[in-house]
């Protein structure tokens, strides 16, 4: 846009338009960026200044105590390992099932297509609730294993519908026809035509599913017993709770309030520790993201 | 065409429903078939160690306090396991996620053998007992499988009264706290008093003058009128504000029963009374409204959290705070504060109501109906009610973490009380003790309590209010029947929330005190009388026992 200004003189209206646009976007960026930077700054600052609201954009009273408290706990590495494991395996399973479900439903000549769609859709709105779910997981022998976190959430119907719409609208029926003429089977069509052409939607789904697995803790809380299986989020939650207290009549020997002040910093450090790895996924998928989102959503 | 889909769909649905019900059926059957083996009583010793001659294996569920190590790898418990021959496979759930797990296990009837640190409310105990999921312990206690509890109950019959549920059974073991930790504190800035040459106030009027002086005479000497004569913080789990509650006794409330529920005590005629509708309470509100209007109360008192409040204390800006049971909660300037005496606001008797009953944390240990070895389980838990057992719970292993001196006082070893790596005592003891966070059966005496409450200066602080404590035998612990519980839940939440909200409005002047009558009437419309009648029934039952 700036390059244009050299050649053709902008009219006053154009210039005004640009100024307004840029200042609006600038404000928006500020609104979004400020809290993020604040969190980073606060995690490196003296907790006392954080509590009294003296931290703005830059850290004051630089201090790493909060991070020391988080990483003092050796179990956090177990948590990282498990979370990465669950995220990778879980996402692979998710993508495989979602695409395999979406493809036949996208084909117009698939028998009972609408019936299957209705059947899937119902599960989006009705579920058995937590107690039957728990009993089911337990009776399937998944209790206290990592599969309890992966199999019950192996597919998300909403995401599958997004994928179906994408396949339906981007891959023309005629492509299949010409493929069949050359002797291609349905399975070959899926692997050689549908999957390569669905790269944008797969990227979007990877992001959706990976973030979900990364952040999830509720299933872990209910289905896991051994600490060696705990994901990162559970350990972080423990560290957070451990460092704060709001019950002053609680039974403890040493209740030094200065220790609880550190909790303020720990809160922020925990946010950084838990979100930085997944944030790093964004830049790699971002270019697909806009494209995939739009196509999936418009005709959904 | 369309019909075909509908048919298919309904077939699919019904098949899946069938499958689902089949699944849950087998689940239930498996549950009920679990053989309740007859416990061989020959194996269990009624006194001494080991508890069982042949090892007994149990499955326990526990709310693991975050600081404490996994109960399966806990050195203190391993030591006890060897001594007792009771081997426990723990489902050691972090406390912050415990409630969901416990409720889920009880709702799906997938029960462990027993629950430690169960944190069951009396209401939940009653309903689980009514469902037959937890068992009454009285027969086992009478049969001698809880020797320590039996001895305590014999010495003090108030204990049996306190731990008996409304249906006449005992379902849980108590935490008996005889140490000073059960007495709450409030703190006045002695340094400011001295600086301004003021006497320690003893009446509410004196206190008012002192607060005014704090506000106007710049006791922290920074030249700015930034002093906050009264400060406090918003608590998450309790009704009303602590600064306000700390003055109940000054207006004579709570003397006959303690504060039995939010805004509730018993009057001189033995009738349960909602103090928030009492005329004396109106005087109290009027007084605090005056303080608020004159800027003597921190404007953020109803919104800030404890960390923000501590930061203000650290900045030397606070005159009075009601909080905690020792002054370690008071931040860096803790040495400036002392316990204030009771400020008399009325002519009659005044009290200190910030004292919890000796018997507390009911619902910290329950045995489920699944347990094949209830006697061994009960003995295992009862051990914590002995002095030796409480020492295990609070101090760890003798000669490893603590020693006993000639006078019978327990003393933590230096590397734990003064950890070289900068850990707090609670952290240093993480794999030796289980008391952190409370809620276990134990008997805390000054001998085994290692908290700050046993320091001589802390005892001196408590001595100021000790003569005004509501007597122990009067402190009531209400117990309700299952039916009363259900009724209570319909009234309590609304009435409490409404009162909390209105009291803040009266204090801050958002609602003029002239509307007091309307306030009382609205409470009446919320069926306050029925709510009180339930407590009255519980109180009468309590008195008869």
Automatic annotation (TrEMBL), chain B:
The keyword Signal applies. The keyword Signal applies. InterPro entries: Bact_solute-bd_prot1 (IPR050490), SBP (IPR006059). Residues 1-21 form the signal peptide. Keywords: Cell membrane, Lipoprotein, Membrane, Palmitate, Signal. It comes from the Bacteria. This is ABC transporter substrate-binding protein.
């Amino acid at each position: 846009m700036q390059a244009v200004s050299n050649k053709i003189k902008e009219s006053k209206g154009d210039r005004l338009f640009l100024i307004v646009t840029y200042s609006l976007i600038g404000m928006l960026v500020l609104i979004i960026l400020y809290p993020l930077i604040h969190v980073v700054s606060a995690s490196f600052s003296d907790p006392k200044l954080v509590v009294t609201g003296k931290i703005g954009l830059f850290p004051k009273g630089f201090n790493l105590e909060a991070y020391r408290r988080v990483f003092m706990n050796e179990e956090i590495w177990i948590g990282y390992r498990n979370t990465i494991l669950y995220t990778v395996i879980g996402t692979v399973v998710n993508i495989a099932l979602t695409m395999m479900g979406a493809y036949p439903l996208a084909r117009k000549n698939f028998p009972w297509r609408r019936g299957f769609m209705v059947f899937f859709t119902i599960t989006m709105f009705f579920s058995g609730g937590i107690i039957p779910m728990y009993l089911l997981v337990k009776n399937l022998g998944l209790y206290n294993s990592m599969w309890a976190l992966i199999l019950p959430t192996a597919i998300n119907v909403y995401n599958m519908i997004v994928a179906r719409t994408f396949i339906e609208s981007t891959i023309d029926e005629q492509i299949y026809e010409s493929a069949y003429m050359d002797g291609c089977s349905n399975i070959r069509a899926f692997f050689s035509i549908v999957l390569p052409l669905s790269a944008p939607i797969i990227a979007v789904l990877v992001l959706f599913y990976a973030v979900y697995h990364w952040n999830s803790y509720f299933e872990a809380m209910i289905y896991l017993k051994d600490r060696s299986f705990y994901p990162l989020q559970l350990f972080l939650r423990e560290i957070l709770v451990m460092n704060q207290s709001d019950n002053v009549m609680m039974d403890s020997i040493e209740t030094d309030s200065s220790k609880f002040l550190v909790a303020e910093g720990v809160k922020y450090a925990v946010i950084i520790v838990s979100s930085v790895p997944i944030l790093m996924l964004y830049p790699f998928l971002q270019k697909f993201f806009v494209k995939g989102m739009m196509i999936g959503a418009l005709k959904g | 065409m369309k019909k075909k889909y509908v048919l298919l769909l309904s077939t699919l649905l019904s098949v899946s429903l069938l499958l689902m019900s089949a699944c849950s059926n087998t689940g239930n059957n498996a549950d009920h078939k679990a053989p309740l083996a007859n416990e061989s009583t020959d194996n269990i010793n009624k006194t001494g160690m080991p508890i069982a001659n042949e090892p007994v294996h149990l499955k326990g569920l526990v709310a693991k306090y975050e600081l404490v190590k996994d109960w399966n790898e806990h050195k203190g418990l391993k030591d006890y396991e060897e001594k007792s021959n009771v081997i426990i496979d723990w489902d050691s759930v972090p406390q912050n996620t415990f409630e969901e797990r416990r409720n889920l296990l009880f709702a799906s009837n997938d029960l462990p053998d027993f629950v430690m640190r169960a944190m069951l409310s009396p209401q939940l105990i009653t309903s689980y007992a009514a469902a037959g999921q937890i068992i009454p312990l009285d027969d086992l206690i009478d049969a001698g499988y809880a020797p320590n509890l039996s001895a305590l109950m014999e010495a003090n019959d108030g204990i049996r009264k306190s731990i008996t549920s409304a249906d006449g059974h005992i379902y849980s073991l108590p935490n008996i706290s005889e140490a000073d930790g059960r007495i709450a504190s409030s703190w006045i800035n002695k340094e400011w008093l001295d600086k301004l040459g003021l006497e320690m106030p003893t009446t509410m009027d004196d206190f008012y003058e002192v607060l005014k002086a704090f506000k106007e005479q710049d006791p922290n000497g920074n030249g700015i009128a930034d002093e906050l004569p009264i400060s406090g913080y918003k608590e998450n789990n309790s009704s009303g504000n602590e600064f306000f509650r700390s003055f109940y006794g000054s207006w004579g409330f709570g003397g006959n029963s303690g504060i039995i529920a939010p805004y509730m005590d018993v009057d001189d005629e033995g009738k349960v009374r909602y103090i928030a509708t009492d005329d004396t309470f109106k005087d109290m509100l009027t007084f605090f409204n005056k303080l608020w209007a004159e800027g003597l109360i921190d404007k953020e008192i109803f919104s800030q959290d404890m960390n923000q409040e501590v930061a203000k204390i650290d900045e030397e800006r606070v005159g009075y705070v009601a909080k905690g049971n020792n002054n370690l909660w008071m931040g860096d300037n803790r040495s400036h504060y002392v316990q204030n005496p009771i400020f008399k606001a009325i002519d009659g008797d005044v009290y200190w109501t910030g004292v919890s009953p000796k018997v507390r944390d009911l619902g910290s240990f329950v045995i489920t109906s699944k347990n094949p070895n209830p006697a061994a389980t009960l003995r295992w838990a009862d051990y914590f009610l002995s002095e030796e057992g409480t020492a295990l719970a609070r101090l760890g292993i003798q000669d490893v973490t603590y020693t006993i001196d000639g006078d019978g006082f327990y003393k933590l070893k230096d590397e734990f009380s003064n950890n070289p790596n900068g850990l707090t005592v609670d952290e240093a003891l993480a794999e030796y003790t289980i008391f952190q966070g409370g809620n276990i059966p134990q008997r805390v005496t000054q001998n085994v309590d290692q908290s700050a409450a046993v320091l001589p200066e802390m005892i001196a602080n408590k001595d100021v209010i000790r003569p005004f404590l509501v007597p122990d035998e009067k402190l009531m612990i209400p117990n309700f029947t299952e039916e009363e519980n259900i009724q209570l839940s319909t009234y309590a939440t609304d009435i409490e929330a409404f009162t909390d909200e209105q009291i803040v409005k009266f204090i801050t002047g958002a609602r003029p005190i002239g509307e007091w009558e309307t306030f009382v009437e609205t409470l009446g419309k919320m069926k306050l009388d029925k709510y009180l009648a339930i407590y009255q029934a519980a109180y009468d039952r309590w008195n008869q026992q």
